[in-house]
Amino acid sequence: MQRGIYILIMLLFVGNYAAWGNPVNFASTRYGLTFRSHTVNQDERTSLDLSPEECFNLKPGFSMSFDLKLFEANLTYGYVFRIILDEISSFDLITNLNTEKLNYVLSKSSSILKNCEFQCNKDSVTDRWLKIRIDVDENGIRCMVDSTMKIISHPLKGFENIKISFGKNRYSSFYTTDVPPMAIRDLRLYNNEGELIHYWRMQQHNRDEIFDLIGGKRAVVENGIWDIDGHVKWKHCISIPF
Known about the structure:
Strand content: 35-45%
Order of helices and strands: HEEEEEEEHEEEEEEEEEH
Oligomer: single chain
Number of domains: 1
CATH topology: Jelly Rolls
Structural class: mainly beta
Low-confidence stretches: 1-26, 232-242
């Protein structure tokens, strides 16, 4: 009896040890960061800040890719990500499943410069992983959703001073609490030569911090739901014969 209780305690400890970002590898484990959305009040919604201490210098261009899963809900409008260039302009991915649209929006001083729209059938995109990618340089942005690509042609600058956030953000001129019901994983940043420079897998984490697997850059999560935590608890809370 005592031996069985001891084994159960050790399994629970290992589960928490893995979820807090220590070197335990569950290659087949479900993972990702799920965002709290309009079902909770604004202070409890999820944010992911990739640049909490310092901005990115990504001149003369960069690429970003990740997997995105959208969930059906009463309110589905919100900012998947917001990229702020030099505190002047922003490039956003905005989703609203209720209108079956994904919009890449380039804005400056609260006015929309370009709007690139993707129609998405709600039944075909809900609860599955979509492949999202953008390629950004001084001449514009190539936007992709799965295998569909569209181009925003517009001169850009400010690559030395870039902030990137997902969901809610508190940047003064670009503040938003509109968070769609979503999850993300396998977030990657590339330089203009296609070299992978940052990779946040959204698996192992240290409470509300996560470090990229390439250079160790710290990102901060507020009010997030780590899918691996639920998997680990389920996996290890099992019956053990005494």
